[in-house]
Amino acid sequence: MEDQSKTSKNDPVIINKELSIGEALIPVFALIGMLAFNVYVFGDDALSGSNQFILLLGGAVAAIVGISNKVKFDKMIDEVSNNIQSTAGAILILLMVGALAGTWMMSGIIPTMIYYGLQILNPTIFLPACVVICSIISVATGSSWTTSATVGIALIGIANALGISPGMTAGAILSGAYFGDKISPLSDTTNLAPAMAGTDLFTHIKYMLYTTVPTVVVTLIIFIIIGLNIDVSGNTDTSAILSSIDSSFYITPWLFLVPAIVIFLIVKKTSPLIALLIGTLLGAVAAIIFQPEIIRQISGADNLDFVSGYKGIMQAITVDTSVVTDNENLNDLFSSGGMAGMLDTIWLILCAMVFGGIMEAIGALSRISAALLNLFHTTFGLFASTVISCLALNATASDQYLAIVVPGKMFAKAYREKGLAPENLSRTLEDSGTVTSVLVPWNTCGAYHSGVLGVPTLSYAGYAFFNYLSPFMTLLFAAFSIKIRQIASTAKTA
């Protein structure tokens, strides 16, 4: 899916025969208990720092379990180092997304998207439209991360202006983004899952459509029903909002060229980091051309010259900036945290990698997966254990790739022994590993999308229907033996 480093994809699964299942679960239960109490005390503010420390405490518990089972501390630190190294790409992208958001706000790109979006999207069709728009962008780019960082931010802005819940909107955005990401041949995880299971990419995508299409149809129906019954707290007469935007920014369709270029670059398989950097620089150029007065205001200078222009642009890229309008409701909307606004999310990812790295080093992840495999002996039980394993790893390893790689390696043999074609496993890995990562606040995906969209994970999780319905859909197909392909019939049509 995403734009993280691929280091973790080919690492061997660490097995520790000294470790019992009870010992492997001690850090998991300790982490869940500590996080639950911490969220009870701090609420949404828990992501501002206290959850990060709880993840470190969870890592300390895992380290104690590891030391008691003859795992050297240096080995744990090495695995933590490898895990953190694997997130280097994600961290750089987060910083670049913050920079891009800053220049796109200052240049009027995001306000222009909101301006025209308000005229096209009314509250009744807004939520299903978010799903469709984000699905298209995500299929084209192969990345839910890029989708959130571009059209996702604009759609959140439109929702705020219309008075629609940001949590609902983020749920619709992520439902569409992960549908597109999941079936796009450009996606990392769409390529990773069949590689782990032992099938080819296009067989995997074709077979995955059986569960994915019904899930997204159900998701659209739910959002259509919500849209027909939505209680909009904002004023649906947007003329005053449009007037405020128009008076604060120079609005022109030419500004759409910048996001169009970024999407084109990613479709052409340009590195996301390069594409986002180019988008940031183009946003700065657009700001100089179309919004010189805003640059002057941000810099705090009386006149716009080279030095004040440079200062204004660099501030928009790196720190908190805002554009004050004559409409108080828009003032929070037209603000950006720049690169600095992503630091809480980066901090969360680093601490999550500490916990996940130690859990992997002591062999707890493989032990939990093996225990799940031994619990079930029926075909449905095998699918269920795969789903549970993926969900557990998204919550404990805090890394989407590990939630695909570890179960993929652990369960491949069991599927073969049951006479099940490998695309059964690859589909289940995607249905339960890829899409649920965004529902876990301390997972790299949950932290990323929450940080980019500015919506707490727990606020949007209940509305990300596609993401949490997908595992149920794959289990439903398994329970009724729908499209469960056997090895002997792989050459036939499923």
Short description:
With 494 residues, the chain is mainly α. Helix content is 72%, strand content 1%. It has 2 domains: 13-84 and 342-489, no CATH class; 90-339, no CATH class.
Rg to the nearest angstrom? Answer: 23 Å
Count of helix runs: 24
N- to C-terminal separation?
A: 26 Å
Q: What is the number of E strands? A: 2
Return the structural class: mainly alpha
Oligomer: single chain
Pick out the low-confidence regions. 1-10, 490-494
Give the biggest beta sheet. 2 strands, antiparallel
- Topology as a string of helices (H) and strands (E): HHHHHHHHHHHHHHHEHEHHHHHHHH
Strand content: under 5%
Number of domains: 2
Q: In words, what does this structure look like?
A:
The chain has 494 residues and is an all-alpha fold. The chain folds into 2 domains: 220 residues, no CATH class; 250 residues, no CATH class. The protein is 72% helix and 1% strand. The protein contains 24 helices and 2 strands. It has a two-stranded antiparallel ribbon. α9 runs parallel beside α20. It starts with 20 loop residues before the first helix and ends in a 15-residue tail after the last helix. The N terminus and C terminus are likely disordered.
Output the keywords.
494 residues; two-stranded antiparallel ribbon; globular; disordered N terminus; disordered C terminus
SSE map:
Layout: H1 21-42, H2 50-68, H3 73-86, H4 88-106, H5 109-120, H6 123-141, H7 144-162, H8 166-183, H9 188-197, H10 201-228, H11 239-248, H12 257-267, H13 272-290, H14 292-299, H15 306-318, E1 321-322, H16 328-331, E2 335-336, H17 343-361, H18 364-375, H19 379-396, H20 400-417, H21 422-434, H22 444-453, H23 457-460, H24 465-479
Helix pairs in contact: 1-2, 1-18, 2-17, 3-17, 4-13, 4-15, 5-7, 6-7, 6-8, 6-10, 7-8, 7-22, 8-10, 9-20, 9-21, 10-21, 10-24, 12-13, 14-15, 17-22, 18-19, 18-20, 19-20, 19-21, 19-24, 20-21, 21-24
